[in-house]
Amino acid sequence: MGIFVLYFADSTKKVRKPKPWKHPQPITVVQLRQMRDEFWDTAPHYGGRKEIWDALRVASESEVALAQTIVESAGIIVSNADLTLCYDERGATFQSCAKYELPKYVLSEPTNLIQDS
């Protein structure tokens, strides 16, 4: 499962994987999946458009080339290099754009992930 970041530099968008991170406590694959499912089930209730949340979910679960295509075609503006803060292009300014905040655990696996037996 690949999670990727979109950079805007000289009008050229470059996608790459996020940096490694560590969860406060070791967690299992099942626990991580439950946390992700909970986030994606509730994310649209925080504001923004459901289709942008859906696009972010698919992009976060895709390989590099597909993730880049999804983000570009959905009109998503990536603010943070690790995809934790995004906006949509519908507003004329950042103040009128919807804000989309993604926790690290939906973007990649922690370094202290426990493999289920």
UniProtKB/TrEMBL annotation:
Pfam families: UBD (PF16455). It comes from the Eukaryota. Residues 12-116 form the DC-UbP/UBTD2 N-terminal domain. This is DC-UbP/UBTD2 N-terminal domain-containing protein. It comes from Eleusine coracana subsp. coracana.
